[in-house]
Design goal:
Blueprint lengths: L6 E12 L5 H9 L7 E4 L9 E5 L2 E5 L8 E5 L1 H12 L6 H12 L3 E12 L8 H9 L3 E3 L5 E4 L9 E4 L6 E7 H9 L10 E8 H13 L4 H12 E3 L10 H7 L15 H11 L2 H13 L5 H8 L7 H13 L6 H6 L11
Antiparallel strand pairs: 1-5, 1-6, 2-3, 3-4, 4-5, 6-11, 7-12, 8-9, 9-10, 10-11
Length: 354
């Protein structure tokens, strides 16, 4: 019989966009607690982003733009990187991934966004609560619902040796769910027979964009274990049934979730950093001073020398404001404005240090 004692939760992917105007070696030390000279530099690109170089250590990667046209960088930690980081870095300092995330929020506050995070639950029971094949059969009969979605997809063959993955929600979703056979995956990776690897079924949520950041924020704010938070989210959102009328819940799914409390992830409609700057400008008096200046110009209340002081002044964006403008231009598909923004930006400190 499957037991809750054979379940464990972990993060299988963490991706963080950092908007920090500091040299890269300083960021590496302050964020990861790793000496920067452990990392090696090479050319590297990240899909959907304009970075052209990457530094890497133990599969931990930080992508950045070597031309300094972008004032941000992207920390990418895959499952392999996180396992290395947990064992070889955090473990030796008697710290956890939660400690790492807490430090990030405390030190850099609003200077970063978590763009992807994959919390997962591993089932190591000899006879698991369920398998991807069992859930696939239910999905094909349309006896499930994930929020308001009934979309599902299957990857892989229905064979014991190769395993398979069942996805709920389409690839574009910001909270896609997947169930897969880690036992088969690891056997293939290690070049051994599946029976030589202990049974291992993984349930994983892929949070992206705002939901990724908010999930981590809730995890750090609540006094709760990661496994209970993940189960709570699944209990609130995902239902499997054994009948077409949706009256009889799948018993294995109910047992898997146990006594966890349902948890809903709501995304607050917060103002962007750029809009907050506009709010300050319009509501804290600066705009009134600017209009007073225009009034003096229109009514010839400034001398020629006074006018020249302001008209000849070159206005450059501070790096943090330039970063917000770049993000806004990119979001609106106006990437041709990125270079003009860079040209009008105060020179930032070198990203790579000495």
């Amino acid at each position: 019989m499957a037991s809750q004692n054979n379940l464990r939760a972990l993060f299988d992917w963490i991706q963080i966009q950092l908007f920090i105007n500091e040299p890269l070696d300083t960021i590496i030390h302050n964020v990861l607690g790793i000496p920067s000279d452990y990392f090696f530099l090479k050319q590297g690109k990240l899909e959907h982003y304009d970075y052209d170089h990457v530094v890497e250590y133990g599969a931990i990667r930080i992508y950045f733009d070597s031309s300094e046209q972008k004032l941000d960088c992207m920390l990418v930690m895959s499952g392999e990187a996180l396992e290395f980081y947990r064992t070889e870095v955090l473990g030796k300092m008697k710290l956890t991934v939660k400690d790492f995330l807490l430090n990030l929020f405390q030190v850099y506050e609003n200077q970063f966004r978590i763009t992807r995070v994959d919390p997962a639950i591993d089932d190591w029971n000899t006879i698991p609560y369920f398998t991807p094949q069992q859930l696939m059969k239910i999905c094909r009969k349309k006896r499930f619902i994930y929020g308001k979605s009934t979309y599902f997809d299957v990857y892989g063959l229905e064979t014991k040796e190769k395993g398979m993955t069942v996805y709920l929600k389409p690839p574009s979703a910001d909270d896609r769910l997947k169930f897969y056979d880690k036992q088969a995956e690891q056997a293939k990776k290690q070049g051994v027979r599946k029976k030589d690897i202990p049974p291992w079924i993984r349930t994983e949520i892929v949070f992206r964009r705002e939901k990724a950041h908010e999930f981590v924020r809730h995890y750090l704010a609540l006094d709760i274990e990661l496994i209970d938070l993940v189960k709570g989210y699944l209990k609130a959102k995902v239902k499997f049934y054994t009948d077409d009328e949706f009256k009889t819940p799948l018993r294995a799914w109910v047992k898997f979730l146990g006594k966890s409390r349902p948890f809903s992830l709501s995304i607050p409609k917060t103002k962007s950093g750029l809009v907050k700057k506009f709010d300050w400008y319009f509501h804290h008096g600066a705009i009134a001073v600017y209009h007073a200046y225009l009034f003096c110009i229109e009514n010839h209340l400034l001398s020629h020398d006074e006018r020249m002081v302001y008209e000849e002044k070159e206005v450059l964006f501070p790096p943090d404001l330039a970063s917000e403008l770049q993000k806004r231009a990119t979001q609106y598909g106006r990437t041709e404005l990125v270079e003009p923004i860079v040209e009008r930006t105060k020179k930032a400190t070198s990203r790579t240090g000495d």
